[in-house]
Amino acid sequence: MRWFPFILLAIAGIVCQTTLVAAIRAHGVGPNVMFILAVYYALWGPWPDAALAAMALGFMTDLYTGSPGRIGLHAFCYGGVAWCIIQVRQVLVRTHPLAQVLIVLAFGGAVELAVALYHYWIASQSGLPKALGLAVLSAAYTAALTPVLLWLLCRLGRLTGLTTDPRAGVNRRR
Known about the structure:
This protein has 174 residues and is mainly α. It is 72% helix and 0% strand.
């Protein structure tokens, strides 16, 4: 894994998150580009690097969305998701769009629900069903954009230093 391209992709991701996502929001719900980038590194990166990359992306998300004193929630969640994905990625067909959508839907939904519950618990405000509904819709929106964005990121595999060919680690007889 190459760290300089990761930094460039992280900057591009946060720029997309702050500008393009604001333009395509629907009823206050938008996709999470940074989470898709974290899933990309978790699916294709080596163990410690992928977890560190996901935590760094979560930390950048915290800096963008977090309130003072509440930094680390996304970083912790993204790091946990990266660890879980790394544990199950050997039994997945990582290049299949349906597998990618299901991974982002399941893990993205878990992250969005954890963040919504955390904010509800801290703020002690009413409207938990609405917050949970928005969290599920945000995870679904993110999952809908996943195949396109992961396809684009896989095309940048030479730049990032990540091998996205599922047969790369298999020794074949000639």
